[in-house]
Design a protein that fits this description.
Number of strands: 11
Shape: globular
Strand content: 35-45%
Structural class: alpha+beta
CATH class: Alpha Beta
CATH superfamily: Archease domain
């Protein structure tokens, strides 16, 4: 382990949340600015009781902002956002099931580890996932994920996610639930 980094490679001294606005500029050929939503599952300023996500542009990465009325809902929404970056999920069927069991030192570590585990499972099994049943008990996560093998003829494959980063990672309790921001290295 690098002496400058703490558990799971996160820089020492980094709290559970980080912040700071990103430099905003218009990408070549794009109408939206970095940090602005590309896809929304909710109207701006509206926080529904059910979970959701939106994808964010970032200089060299893609961001996912997820929310939910509770932590399991937030974890499901973040997982849906991850797979929306990897491939369009409309045509993915819940044909196969895997169980994911994780323990972490903190809730942010658990969310980060959950997304890392899903990305690794996707890459190793060559599958896409569309359903996520998440149960949290303290700092332990147990989930059932359902999906199917990748079929380039049927699935809208978009990009490979190389890693779930700690850069600008944020998890916080908000009025009516929880919200997270995660950047994906693509």
């Amino acid at each position: 382990m690098d002496a400058r980094r703490g558990k799971r490679g996160r820089p020492e001294g980094r709290g559970d949340t980080t912040g700071g606005p990103e430099e905003r500029r218009r990408p070549e050929g794009r109408g939206d600015a970095i940090g602005e939503p590309r896809r929304r599952e909710r109207p701006e300023g509206h926080r529904p009781a059910s979970g959701g996500f939106e994808l964010l542009e970032h200089t060299a990465d893609v961001g996912v902002r997820a929310w939910g009325a509770n932590l399991p809902e937030l974890f499901r929404a973040a997982a849906r956002g991850l797979f929306e970056v990897i491939a369009g999920t409309e045509s993915v069927r819940p044909a196969r099931e895997h169980v994911v069991d994780l323990v972490a030192d903190s809730v942010p570590d658990l969310l980060h580890g959950w997304l890392e585990e899903l990305n690794a499972l996707h890459q190793i099994q060559r599958e896409l996932y569309v359903e996520f049943e998440v149960v949290l008990a303290g700092l332990r996560l147990r989930a059932r994920v359902r999906g199917e093998p990748i079929d380039p003829a049927r699935h809208d494959l978009r990009t490979e996610v190389k890693a779930i980063t700690w850069h600008d990672f944020e998890l916080r309790e908000v009025e009516g639930g929880w919200e997270a921001r995660v950047l994906l290295d693509i």
